[in-house]
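ingest -> validate -> predict -> emit
validate: passed (alphabet ok, no gaps, 401 aa)
predict: started
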Amino acid sequence: MWLRRWWVLALIGVLGLLGPVARAQEGTAPITIEGVALRQVLDAPVPLYLTASIDDARARWMRDAMAIALQEVPRLTGLALPQQRLEFYLFSDPREMATLSSQLLRAPGPRVAPECFALAASGTPRRGIYCQADGWESAAQALDYVAHELTHQVEQGDSPQRRDLAQWFNEGLAEHVQQLVVRERYPAYAARDRWLREARVASALHTERLPRLGDLTSNARWQQAAAGGWAGLIYAHSSLVVDWLAGQYGLDRVVEVVRRTGAPLRFDEVFHEVFGLSVAEAEQGARAAFEAELLPRYPRGLSVFESDEPGEKAVYFAVVGFQPREWLTKEYRYADGAPADGVGATGTQPDSDRTDLSGFATWRWTRTGALPPGQPPRVELTVRGSAGSTATQSATLPTVP
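emit:
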């Protein structure tokens, strides 16, 4: 298995006939698999099984994400869907996924709390993609994870042997394709996702904490880094490096590395043949581009993302380039100096109270009180770190009542 934000993706699988994005959930039927009572979504494009605790909205998000990804991932990559059966499973939370997936697979479930993982090793009892919807807040988020997972499936294809791609390249390409798929349908979500990746990498550049790609080659090292608190950064860094490769050489060249990697050709050899430079030289070129483009746009301090998504009520903040592991205090005020009432933890997104190992933190803030009479719809945030870092930035508040 390989790690997807907190877990691993082992690949293979196969899909049946594609169908159009469905209108609405038209029904489910009970089914028992390996002693687990599930519901099968009857109008899904390929087998989709839910636990009884999944609500209709998340079932629709999952089903529609599958239908979109099954069409768009092969179209964008030029890699065919596998010919073997692939099943999708949706659980309500990490505990349910760990418990029931272990029963379905006749093996221990995930040791951590992933959003999704894909299992594909030959001979496993249930090849497929397994997700838990506890943190899902939108259809865009469901598509984010499903498109990523399906990219891994087409990377592996029907080969009985693992591609043995470098893990940073494997995850970076899945993130790159996921961004392309999501951007076409949910541009506001994709823009916020891009802002978050760039701000993370910029923070690591400021603090000289950007991991080396050479340290993220194996699955074991990737898991170790993610479990050690680097998960967000290693995904962001790898995705931006693959973005840079696709921008410099074209996505078709990036995919050519996938097609050609595998016994007897090693990843590093194929990479050099396709791009004409080593991984280290590519990393150096990408870093130079990041320093030139990201550091001016994300200076040390606070970065703000103001979404134009319809119905958005929150403002998104990020601390960039503070000291690692600083405790944060935050002060929100209106233009007249009056305290601004709001909440920094909404839905499943916690209010970050400490920077990570690269000096980065992010959260969203939602106004709860009324604007003072005659004041502009803006809020000023001052953040102070326990190690002496400080920053102030203002943001326009959404006009949603």
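Residues 1-25 have pLDDT under 50 and may be disordered.
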